[in-house]
């Protein structure tokens, strides 16, 4: 980090800490008071840093985490506990053909600038986005399988297979490979190519913090038929359908 960028970050953090407008800090800087403050800030204990970092927008939080090893440790700790500022100013997520299929961009409304992010396979441009919440994108790949992706950390979590959703059955070819899906709530059932089911099946997905386990979450899916709900927690081997036996 350049000294100028570090200064701008420190002044933003300092203004939060002291409850002063940034403009006053600029004045202090001219008068030579802030050098002292900045040194003191680097020596703050972790619990105080956690409180300050917890109020930052994500781009500033990441910058703060790259200042030194103790600030990085604080940053990691906040991420693990998911105690950073909620809600954040919204960002717009987009991809563009010229940047390549694994690249996404986050446009920060707050800063009026875009951040370029390289994301894990399968290519983000080939996925259907069916929701975003609590920092996660919920995506369906070209086999209609669901993944959570954190666009900032690059962390990715595979969700239970699409064939464990009520009413979805795999159709195998002669070699025993899944080559189509059957959606069985209608008679006769509809058949879909692997990549086409996602457009029909998924309406919307959300990620909620799981109150029973710190740092964990529940993914809730709204899907065919009749906007039914299913949910899954990390590590589940199947989707749980809400309201079995009460169709209609
Ligand atoms: C946002 O950035 C663009 C490009 O740097 C600039 O042209 C535009 O005026 C900025 N908009 C605002 C609201 O600051």
UniProtKB/TrEMBL annotation:
Is Signal included in the keywords of this UniProt record?
yes
UniProt cross-references to PROSITE patterns, sorted A to Z: FBOX
**Which region is the signal sequence?**
1-19
Supply the alphabetized keyword list. Answer: Signal
Superkingdom per UniProt: Eukaryota
Q: Return the CDD domains for the record.
A: F-box_SF
Query: Organism source for this protein?
Result: Zea mays (Maize)
Q: Which residues form the F-box domain?
A: 38-87
Cited Pfam families = Beta-prop_KIB1-4, F-box-like
Mind telling me what this protein is named? F-box domain-containing protein
